């Protein structure tokens, strides 16, 4: 049987994603225990994490399995990612051997690998996570790569359904936010894909020069229209938040200046008012729209502390839902339910 990987939400059919969300709701209601006895998940974190690592370890434990976690360069060998590399530099082991070996020990691999920030024309192909999948005999779960964070997207979808009830036709605003660093586009793209999956009218509010990759707009727009929603892109942030049902402030770096940090930083100058404030929350639908974020969030930079501490904040529910959706992904890929 061909193995299945979970690398991007849109690579699974809408029916399969709905199935995962239904399974996650059953996990959250306490209707499923066991299902992964003696199963092992091998996690490779090339970049840091709080939620992803803690929730994956918890998910495996709750269902009777075990998760091991490797941090290359911190207790496990530094990993080379370039398939054609002549390895006479600092990397000791190649991801090709790492994936092949770990798939002999474990029932699934889960990998976090952020973009290196050098050349978007190269990094947009998401080769490292895809090579892990290519060289592993076992399913590979993407824990955030250059292009996608599908477990976060699933958690965003579950949170939107829980807070909004019927989502079709409601307004989801992905709002670019200022940040002191240029961040990747995986989370914002995945959040918009999640909202598109739910048939929402998605608005991406971003300043000029901060477009997502054109393929992301195609993926979001195509999915939204197939599911009865729409995609709009604007630089009018206050117009976008008017009547919104959910606002997702998130920073990302300009792809036009990817790999050129000085030019990229200069592009962010003067944009600190791209921030989710209580004034903007009051403009949402009935003044009751929800505020979302994947976390970690920079308080009073991306989103005001007053918003995070308000009843309209869904960010802690969203973080909890990471656990339940990942239980569903793991049960679907390597467990029984
Ligand atoms: N949202 C998220 O992936 O959190 P971590 O980076 O802490 O894992």
Question: Would you kindly provide a written description of the structure presented here, covering whatever features stand out?
Answer:
The structure is a single chain. It contains 13 helices and eleven strands. It is an alpha/beta fold and 337 residues long. The strands form three sheets. It has a five-stranded parallel beta sheet. A four-stranded parallel beta sheet has the order 2-1-5-6, with helices on both faces. A two-stranded parallel ribbon has the order 3-4. Strand 8 (201-205), helix 8 and strand 9 form a beta-alpha-beta unit. 39% of the residues lie in helices and 14% in strands. The protein has helices at 14-28, 51-62, 95-105, 120-123, 127-135, 150-164, 186-197, 214-226, 237-241, 261-268, 278-282, 305-308, 315-334; strands at 40-45, 66-70, 79-80, 93-94, 108-112, 140-142, 171-176, 201-205, 230-234, 246-250, 290-291. It folds into two domains: 9-148 and 321-334, Rossmann fold (3-Layer(aba) Sandwich), CATH 3.40.50; 152-318, Rossmann fold. The longest helix is centred in the last third of the chain and has 20 residues, at 315-334. It is globular and about 55 Å long. The structure holds phosphoric acid mono(formamide)ester.
Q: Catalogue the unreliable spans.
A: none
Query: Which CATH-level-2 architecture of the largest domain?
Result: 3-Layer(aba) Sandwich
Number of helices: 13
Round the Cα radius of gyration to an integer and report it.
20 Å
Q: Which word captures the global form?
A: globular
Write down how many β-strands occur, each being a DSSP E stretch of 2 or more residues.
11
Distance between the termini: 19 Å
Structural class: alpha/beta
Q: What is the N-to-C succession of helices and strands?
A: HEHEEEHEHHEHEHEHEHEHHEHH
What is the CATH topology assignment of the largest domain?
Rossmann fold
What is the overall pLDDT average? 98
Strand neighbour order, sheet with most strands: 9-8-7-10-11
What is the helix fraction of residues, given as a range? 25-40%
Bound ligands, named by name, code or SMILES: phosphoric acid mono(formamide)ester
For the biggest sheet, the summary is:
5 strands, parallel
The number of distinct structural domains comes to 2
Strand content: 5-15%
Instruction: Please identify the top-level CATH class of the largest domain.
Output: Alpha Beta
Oligomer: single chain
CATH superfamily of the largest domain: Aspartate/ornithine carbamoyltransferase
